[in-house]
Amino acid sequence: MIVTTIPSVEGHKITAYHGVVTGETILGANIFRDIFAGIRDIVGGRSASYEKALSEARESALNEMQDRARQLGGNAVVGTDLDYEVINNMLMVSASGTAVTID
């Protein structure tokens, strides 16, 4: 499935719009990851465990959005937007876009 942040897919004509689709993932706090991230903050460097968790959360949200687009009969999602929010010490990653059918 093609997923793009722009409102069209170059070289393809949109033949049907199926509506807005979303996917959400909430990443909970993990005490061990938090402890090691804190140590990384003190000595510098990147927190590989947080980066991996964030990447997995983003992929999960995008996959959920694509599944919903398929359920509506779409074969692409245009205008995709990713948002990150902190809610009660948890990170929410949400993806949204418009499910479409392209030729």
From TrEMBL:
Gene3D superfamilies linked to this entry: Hypothetical protein apc22750. Chain B
Family: Belongs to the UPF0145 family.
Alphabetized Pfam families for the sequence: YbjQ_1
InterPro entries: UPF0145_dom_sf, UPF0145_YbjQ-like
Protein name per the record: UPF0145 protein H4P12_10670
HAMAP family noted in UniProt: UPF0145
Lineage: Bacteria, Pseudomonadati, Pseudomonadota, Alphaproteobacteria, Rhodobacterales
